[in-house]
Specification:
Layout lengths: L3 E6 L44 H29 L6 H25 L7 E2 L5 H8 L21 H30 L2 H5 L5 H12 L3 H8 L3 H17 L5 E5 L7 E5 L1 H4 L1 H18 L21 H5 L18 H28 L7 H21 L6 E2 L1 H10 L4 H16 L1 H8 L3 H21 L9 H23 L9 H11 L2 H15 L4 H4 L1 H13 L13 H5 L21 E3 L11 E6 L1
Parallel strand pairs: 1-6
Antiparallel strand pairs: 1-7, 2-5, 3-4
Helix pairs in contact: 1-2, 1-3, 1-14, 1-15, 1-17, 2-13, 2-15, 2-16, 3-12, 4-12, 4-13, 6-17, 6-18, 6-20, 7-17, 8-10, 8-17, 12-14, 12-19, 18-20
């Protein structure tokens, strides 16, 4: 295959960003063994096809791990209470290690065989709503004795069976729902579904991922509002007020032996810094006995010694494996609820793909790449169900944003991040350390994160006409019903009984999942109430898809690796697979990486043959 990639140097190479990577400009765009050597675009230190130095890959891989850390740790900690594990931090640490390990595997699969963009995979909040709804059924409510720490013996077979049978139920639901996601992705059905799913469906769906969790976040923060408020203050301070303040960091480069470079520490690690400082504050208050020592007193769970035994009990190394909690079980209620979450997760991931492509200077992803990405995410959910994370996997929006901050769009950095996740999953003490975070610190973090997720959902309304009474009615009605209906069903479950237990459970799980109720009403009303494509926001939505189709001939980025599509599997039948690169794309391609106006033209350009 002959491919030509036209790359260009910035008119003024000295006008680069002030990121921490500016000291490595001499290494930019390097490829080993005579492979592609290209100048990156003006806003990128390393493009998607560039390979940074190995030490830089490791450093930035750790940074991506830390960026995703808040979301990765939050998922098992939120599930812990409904899994009857609120008084078993050691098992919580096992769940955290497992989700690290599976996220690493899924990240590597996505980079090499999926969408092939530098995008991290991890646990998703979309699955929390239906999971908590299923665990709130009378069959799965925790016994009263598991809520009392003095009555819980974490090593007893009875207690072990109590939490393991719940997570096995979640495993089975995720396994079945993941097969649906793989079918939708690899069959190309996602392209058909996106014709009917617009901003007025996505906005209430994503917003209602987090809104119903206000009660859980408030309860955790209410353990000690002073500690929770401190955590919130620190995260907001670092992420909003100090985000543009650069910290000088000593670095070494080829041109300059030793000098300092700017590093936007507060912009990249606001959650991690907030957690660490609040954690340290709790430790000081514990050592000085400023916090009460009586288990029933207000603020006791803010002490750092309530879970102190976890670090000593946790093994140094622990390898998660499929079926570690036993054989998964399946019920229709859980499956239908998780399928609703899978649909929401797919829609969100497609938006992440396009955002990631823009940030790394790649063309918009074509249909075959999107189909493959969604299919691989389904495979990732299958692995998450097999390993027993209690959750699925999806693309991480936080890490997509980190690409714009670091100005490094290389795939190899995300490969390094996947390897870091694998190592953190095997190193048992890491999961144990995060399981010891005081409860009010977690509650403060949740309040901030859930607020951001809600705002992200509402931001999808920028594509629609907000002066239209039609659109305002659809969004407002969907959000309100997504809160009101689940609240009523939770209080009156006996009113929905049909006499068939399995059907009753399916109805209850779906109607107590606000994300499903709001998303379904938004979908139904948006597709039945008359409105123009521009008014509904579908015109701008479809333009993104059209742009990606027009540029498919220029996509070297989205080909399968190692010559799979051109060297090993050249059958004409493969060209009809929805996730396979088209035959027309195998000719000579020209990909422009110049970010400035094409009318002005680049100052210098070079053609590199692959």
């Amino acid at each position: 295959m002959n491919s030509a990639i036209t790359t260009c140097e910035h008119p003024n190479p000295l006008q680069r960003g002030d990121g921490v990577l500016s000291s490595h400009e001499g290494d930019q765009g390097s490829k080993k063994d005579g492979q592609l050597k290209s100048s990156s675009s003006s806003h990128l230190a390393y493009g998607i096809l560039d390979i940074p130095p190995w030490y830089l890959c490791i450093f930035l891989g750790i940074q991506h791990f830390l960026t995703a850390l808040g979301g990765l740790v939050a998922v098992p900690l939120i599930l812990a209470k409904d899994l009857c594990l609120q008084h078993d931090p050691l098992t919580q640490s096992y769940l955290i290690s497992t989700i690290f390990f599976v996220s690493g595997i899924c990240t590597l699969l996505q980079v090499f065989l999926g969408i092939r963009l530098p995008i991290l995979q991890g646990g998703t909040f979309a699955f929390l709503g239906p999971s908590l709804a299923m665990l709130s059924l009378p069959t799965w409510k925790c016994p009263a004795w598991t809520l009392n720490a003095s009555q819980v013996n974490t090593s007893s077979p009875e207690f072990t069976e109590e939490w393991q049978k719940r997570i096995r139920e979640l495993q089975g639901a995720v396994l079945v729902a993941s097969c649906v996601q793989m079918l939708v992705g690899f069959s190309g059905l996602i392209g058909f579904l996106m014709r009917f799913i617009g901003p007025l469906t996505i906005a209430p769906t994503i917003s209602l991922m987090a809104l119903p969790l206000f009660n859980s976040a408030g309860d955790d923060a209410g353990i000690h509002w002073g500690i929770a408020a401190t955590t919130i203050f620190l995260i907001v301070l670092f992420s909003q007020y100090l985000k543009n303040i650069a910290v000088p960091v000593p670095v070494c480069g080829r041109e300059k032996k030793s000098h300092t470079s700017k590093f936007y520490l507060f912009q990249i690690f606001p959650v991690l810094l907030g957690l660490c400082i609040s954690w340290l504050l709790c430790f000081v208050l514990t050592v000085t006995d400023a916090l009460p020592s009586a288990p029933t007193a207000y603020g006791y769970l803010a002490r750092t010694d309530t879970k102190g035994s976890v670090l000593s009990q946790a093994p140094w190394f622990r390898f998660p494996y499929p079926g570690q909690w036993g054989l998964p079980t399946v019920s229709p209620a859980g499956v239908f609820g998780i399928i609703a979450a899978v649909i929401s997760s797919m829609v969100e991931s497609i938006g992440d793909y396009h955002a990631c492509a823009r940030l790394v200077g790649a063309p918009p992803p074509p249909k075959h790449a999107i189909n493959r990405g969604i299919g691989i995410e389904g495979l990732g959910c299958l692995l998450a169900g097999a390993w027993g994370t209690g959750n699925g996997t999806t693309s991480y929006s936080e890490n997509v944003g980190a690409l714009g901050i670091t100005r490094v769009g290389s795939r190899m950095v995300i490969v390094a991040a996947g390897c870091v996740l694998l190592l953190m999953g095997v190193f048992g003490k890491i999961g144990a350390a995060f399981a010891t975070i005081p409860t009010p610190v977690i509650g403060g973090m949740f309040l901030v994160m859930f607020g951001v997720i809600t705002a992200v959902g509402i931001s999808n309304l920028q594509y629609v006409d907000l002066n239209s009474s039609r659109n305002l009615f659809i969004f407002g009605f969907s959000i309100f019903c997504g809160l009101a209906i689940p609240n009523w069903v939770n209080k009156n479950p006996e009113r929905l009984r049909t006499g068939i237990l399995q059907l009753d459970q399916v109805i209850q799980v779906l109607l107590t999942t606000g994300m499903f109720v709001g998303g379904f009403l938004g979908f139904l009303l948006d597709n039945t109430i008359p409105g123009s494509l521009e008014e509904r926001g579908l015109l701008a939505w479809n333009q993104v898809q059209e742009e990606s189709e027009e540029s498919t001939k220029a996509l070297e980025v989205y080909d399968l690796p190692w010559g799979i599509s051109t060297r090993f599997c050249t059958s004409s039948c493969a060209q009809y697979l929805p996730f396979w690169p088209r035959e027309g794309e195998a000719g000579v391609r020209q990909l422009s990486l110049c970010p400035w106006d094409s009318e002005e033209g680049p100052r210098r350009a070079t053609d590199t043959r692959l």
